[in-house]
Description:
A hairpin with a 2-residue loop joins strand 14 and strand 15. The protein contains nine helices and 16 strands. The strands form four sheets. The protein has a five-stranded antiparallel sheet with strand order 3-6-1-16-9. A five-stranded antiparallel sheet has the order 4-5-2-14-15, with no helix packed on it. Strands 11-10-8-13 form a four-stranded antiparallel sheet, covered by helices on one side. By secondary structure, the protein is α+β, with helices and mostly antiparallel strands. 27% of the residues lie in helices and 28% in strands. The radius of gyration is 23 Å and the shape is globular. It starts with a helix and ends with a strand. The chain folds into two domains: 119 residues, Immunoglobulin-like (Sandwich); 167 residues, Roll (C8orf32 fold), CATH 3.10.620.30. The N terminus is likely disordered.
Amino acid sequence: xxxxxxxxxxxxxxxxxxxxxxxxxxxxxxxxxxxxxxxxxxxxxxxxxxxxxxxxxxxxxxxxxxxxxxxxxxxxxxxxxxxxxxxxxxxxxxxxxxxxxxxxxxxxxxxxxxxxxxxxxxxxxxxxxxxxxxxxxxxxxxxxxxxxxxxxxxxxxxxxxxxxxxxxxxxxxxxxxxxxxxxxxxxxxxxxxxxxxxxxxxxxxxxxxxxxxxxxxxxxxxxxxxxxxxxxxxxxxxxxxxxxxxxxxxxxxxxxxxxxxxxxxxxxxxxxxxxxxxxxxxxxxxxxxxxxxxxxxxxxxxxxxxxxxxxxxxxxxxxxxxxxxxxxxxxxxxxxxxxxxxxxx
Length: 345
């Protein structure tokens, strides 16, 4: 081999090694679920429902969401305790799992109880939003994922035109990358909204109401965030589950918690929790690119039709039980949620 060819080969090898090292650094900057530096929490969760006595009906059904396995959550030991016949299924759009109960006329007339118990391990989800790979990543979704189109479309209470679109345009003016747009939308929501559950109107995830009232709970924070993101062409999705109190090893859980993710091509889903960022100013930056392990995830999406058995309107979101008698929503269901850390003494 000639000296010039040897030098050229050596230079090419160095270039390839440098490129590989840069790629490794970029990929390594995106935390994986098995990263030992990330925290995780294992616990037992109990979901209880009481359905009050119902008048005679030709058909009665009760749907309860089931927790999901994913890269950041492992579910095991699910036990469904009820005398009522039941089966499991998925909604046709988001593929959220559920269990549906079909009581006999006698069971419906007497009222009945359902208890779900399962074990879960929830892992912290952290993405380094400063990693080089994210800075120029596009938000163009893959063509082979049918849900990606849905995550760019409006929901009933989350329009993508008018006020929401104009607000998003204003807050992202001058931005050249999806990550910049996402950051500015996040900052707008956290700095403008106020976590406030007083009065009425909050909790529906109505993006226009949130934009106008500038307050609400996690549903309202994230409806505004998701609407603004989608209106500038960035796929964003709604996720809902329950919070686990930090620093408490067992107890009751009064209600749900929801959060969001947005998509970058070649990176995947980036976690965001705008309402927790508002409530915890010291973790403001953390919650743009992270979900902690103090939560359990159940379902994706809004405007959910569970199955062909459901005759009522699509559900705004699906975390609490939903029941129908002859196609009409059943009122007066009562619930109780609790948890216990598995490593607690």
